[in-house]
Amino acid sequence: MAYILNMFKRNSLLIALVLVMIFFEVLIQSTDKGSLFSPQNFTNIIYQNSYVIILAVGMLFLIIGCGNIDLSVGSIVALIGAVAGVLMVNNEYNIYMSMAICILLGILIGAWHGFWIAYIRIPSFIVTLAGMLLFRGLALIVLDGITINPFPYEYLQLFTSFVPANRADAYATTVAVTMVIVAIYVIGVLYGRISKLKKGYEVEPLSGFLFKHLIVLAALIASSLLLAQNKGIPVILVLIAAVVIIYAFIANKTVVGRRIYALGGNEKAAKLSGVNTNRLLFLSYVNMGLLAAVAALVCVARFNSASPMAGTGYELDAIGSCFIGGASAYGGVGTVGGAVIGAIFMGVLNNGMSILGVDANWQKAVKGLVLLVAVVVDVMSKKRVTN
Predict the structure, then answer these.
(1) Three-class SS state of 163
(2) Number of C-alpha atoms within 13 angstroms, CB side, residue 333?
(3) For residues 83 and 78, what is the distance between their CA atoms, to the nearest angstrom?
(4) Is the pLDDT of residue 1 over 60?
(5) How far is CA 324 from CA 72, 83, 244, 253, 327, in A?
(6) In b/e form, how buried is each residue of 51-84, taking b as 16+ CB within 10 angstroms?
(7) Are 88 and 95 in contact (CB under 8 A)?
């Protein structure tokens, strides 16, 4: 019995996500308001949460590294979206040059935050709160308080098109791609487990290992079938996958990733071990600025407009995704996969309550309670370990 409880505890987030999906599907079906898992709605969930996932990955590295958060990412999205609109729509600049300028601006904003936090040692809450006000104000100034649209068709195609372009081939292509991904995933997880066993590392029990990965594979196959029945694989999903894979590799397989975890575990110990903690903290904020710029480009493509009020509340969704996904408020604990699952969890809550017609104010209340519960569980588990 204890073994089964431990298995469920290790995979509690995945189980909670599945249960929430089933809960909303039953409610939606019972009220004859469609289906959470209709092909069109599933694609819509991906688009709705694409920029939240990107922001959550960047936020995760801040939380892991030092328990810090960035309150300004929503305002950064608005400012960079405004700059993109002025460049591409008003001045008709080359879309690739405009995107490069936006990415560079995001990096500079991240460096601005990183300088004050890492080297001057001003608390991150103060710096990013100031940034939230500053960049929102600059977005209003750049756009003169109005919304700019439409964006060039070529730019929209970079983020809103599907693979393959021909809808008639969508089903066959999506299934073929899924088969390749499933094969790579199975080979990868088996190789990783066998490699750990050969090196004498501790691994999770076989039943828990199979339970977790079978859920992932089932979700992957079911998702691909839904996409295949709609228009195929959204290009934005390819971008999200690339971001998640790259940052998961950095977190788990590189020296920088190990140092970030060490920084969050104990900054003084990491510094005494030879880690340049100031530079690492600085680069974490630079990275956050970079990903905020990417999220901004995705956001304006989805809405086909640049608005001075864009990005409102995005910082809260990104932070909530990380904590719901298992990141510790104290730093040093968290995974990219957990942050992605947390973002999907938030997305399902948003989408499910919207379909059911739940008032927007109640939606915020529910998300606030979910976030509070996630942090309380983290704090209480830390106290049990300490005691």
Answers:
(1) strand
(2) 13
(3) 9
(4) no
(5) 20, 32, 17, 24, 7
(6) bbbbbbbbbbbbbbbbbbbbbbbbbbbbbbbbbb
(7) yes
385, pLDDT greater than 50: no
Buried b (16+ CB within 10 A) or exposed e, 305-314: bbbbebbeeb
Which segments within the chain are labelled E, that is strand?
A: 162-163, 233-234
Vertex 335: Cα angle to 278 and 161 (nearest 5): 105
Residue 306's DSSP bridge partners are: 148
Amino acid at 239: L
Q: Identify which of 276, 261, 285 has the alpha carbon closest to the alpha carbon of residue 115.
A: 285
Q: Are 241 and 227 in contact (CB under 8 A)?
A: no
* From 173-182, 203-212, 241-250, the region with the lowest mean pLDDT: 203-212
372: number of Cβ within 10 Å: 12
Q: What is the pLDDT of residues 265-301, one digit of tens each?
A: 888 888 888 888 899 999 999 999 999 999 999 999 9
Which residues are bridge partners to 233 per DSSP? 163
Higher pLDDT, 205 or 340: 340
Task: Work out the average pLDDT over 83-98.
Answer: 92
d(CA 67, CA 60): 9
Domain boundaries, the chain: 13-21+45-162+236-376, 165-231
Structure tokens at 157: 């195609």
> Please, what sign has the CA dihedral across residues 148, 154, 155, 160?
positive
Helix (H) or strand (E) holding 315: helix 314-324
> What average pLDDT does the chain have?
86
pTM: 0.89
DSSP helix, strand, coil percent of the chain (3-state; round to 5) = 80, 0, 20
Q: Is 267 left (phi over 0), alpha (psi -120 to 50) or beta?
A: alpha
Distances (CA, A) of 220 to 230, 235, 287, 360: 16, 17, 28, 30
Q: How far apart are CA 224 and CA 216, in angstroms?
A: 12
Position 283 scores a pLDDT of 93
